[in-house]
Amino acid sequence: MSALDLPKPAWWTDEHSMLAESTRSFLHKEFVPHLDRWSEAGIMDREAWTKAADAGLLSASIPEEYGGAGGDYSHEAVIAHEIGLAGADSWGWAIHGPIVAPYILHYGTEEQKKNWLPKMATGELVAALAMTEPGAGSDVQGIRTKAERSGNGWVLNGSKTFITNGQHANMVVVAAKTDPSAGAKGTSLFVVETDNAPGFRRGRKLKKLGLDWADTSELFFDDMKLPAEALLGPEPNQGFYQMMRSLPQERLTIGGAAVAMMERALTLTIAYVKERKAFGKPVMDFQNTQFELADMKTEATMAKAFYDTCVGLHIEGRCDTATASMVKYKLSDLQNTIVDRCLQLFGGYGFMDEYPISRMYRDARIQRIYGGTNEIMKLLIARTL
Ligand SMILES: Cc1cc2nc3c(=O)[nH]c(=O)nc-3n(C[C@H](O)[C@H](O)[C@H](O)COP(=O)(O)OP(=O)(O)OC[C@H]3O[C@@H](n4cnc5c(N)ncnc54)[C@H](O)[C@@H]3O)c2cc1C
């Protein structure tokens, strides 16, 4: 049973219920039994991507003509929620599905869509998005990776860091300068297929605080030759515009993961405090526990209502940058606070790895940083004041 009993939003249909149900049973069969092993290994099994593709999880909003299920962002939101409820937060699914696929769908030429989207839907291609560099994170304009024309194609040079799916990805959308004199307006996106590609090198799978089985990595491009068709869209220098248009969906998805984790944390905590006894009675019977949980349930319910509303706005094309930034910033902040308060109610057991709340505490922290830090979100919101 879930700790949050808010009625379903207006955009929810029977189809969403069926998708939620099938995603849940898939994750509990193919992911949950392996989470500890993947955490030990620091990476998930590559076949799990293919199984997820077979279950339709990699193509929810890809149109049917390109091999997808033909849904919209609301279907991605349902999958994101189930991934969070199953505790599979380390999975770089969001980068592949609701983040990279729309880049191809919205900005790719017809040929590019026909080439890449069906392979993304079957899991033949696993996608990564490479914007961040050692010297440029928040300041995307400061990237130094560059692509220079060479004959009909391009030559790519540079390095990227913190790239989600960095070890498994064989299709990387890379942000590069194509006209360094034009600042942000001189940026382009390239879709780089990496299988047996000379000039491409994967660096370390980075050790980190949380997301134990996310293969976050460095990537290197040394005089890598790219065909003309690797440029996303028909013309260069559109990258900054393409990224800015796409970031609201990425930020909404981070908010969705935050809602799911809050819901899971509350569900696990309520079950624990009803079982655990102190001073001869269940921890739930202390008024402090009840007030803490009542307060957290209220805050998480408000967060879910805001998020559900914004998903509805987004599928109508009406969720703007500032609103998506509010979702990302406020919900990820709240996620961190709620997981911390829930962990407190577990006492010392909350600090032990075998209790999922401990892993959630570590996994939650990155949500305030990636997809644009929460400080950058506040800057974007402040521009509307
Ligand atoms: C696990 C993980 C996965 C990631 N996945 C990806 C990925 O798949 N693809 C990708 O491209 N990147 C990815 N990133 C990178 C992530 O998006 C960046 O780390 C993030 O954007 C911040 O950039 P930075 O680390 O360079 O921090 P910096 O930009 O150096 O920021 C440092 C601090 O300064 C603050 N700051 C910066 N500018 C301002 C300002 N103007 N006003 C106020 N404060 C400011 C920041 O908020 C932050 O607190 C990932 C990172 C991690 C850790």
Structure write-up:
- The structure is a single chain.
- The protein is α+β, with helices and mostly antiparallel strands and 385 residues long.
- Helix content is 48%, strand content 14%.
- The protein has 11 helices and 9 strands.
- The protein has a 4-stranded antiparallel beta sheet with strand order 2-3-7-6, with no helix packed on it.
- A hairpin with a 2-residue loop joins strand 2 and strand 3.
- Helix 5 (93-107) packs antiparallel against helix 7 (239-275), helix 7 runs antiparallel to helix 8 (287-315) and helix 7 (239-275) runs antiparallel to helix 10 (356-364).
- The two termini are 41 Å apart.
- The mean pLDDT is 97.
- The structure holds flavin-adenine dinucleotide (FAD).
* Number of extended strands: 9
Shape: globular
Rg (C-alpha, Å): 21 Å
Largest sheet: 4 strands, antiparallel
The total of helices stands at: 11
Bound molecules: flavin-adenine dinucleotide
Task: Kindly name the structural category.
Answer: alpha+beta
Strand order of the largest sheet: 2-3-7-6
Relative strand content? 5-15%
Contiguous uncertain segments of 5+ residues: none
Can you write the helix and strand succession as a string? HHHHHHEEEEEEEHEEHHHH
Q: Estimate the helix proportion, in percent.
A: 40-55%
Looking at the chains present, what oligomeric state does this protein adopt? Answer: single chain
What is the averaged pLDDT score?
97
Separation, N- and C-terminal Cα atoms: 41 Å
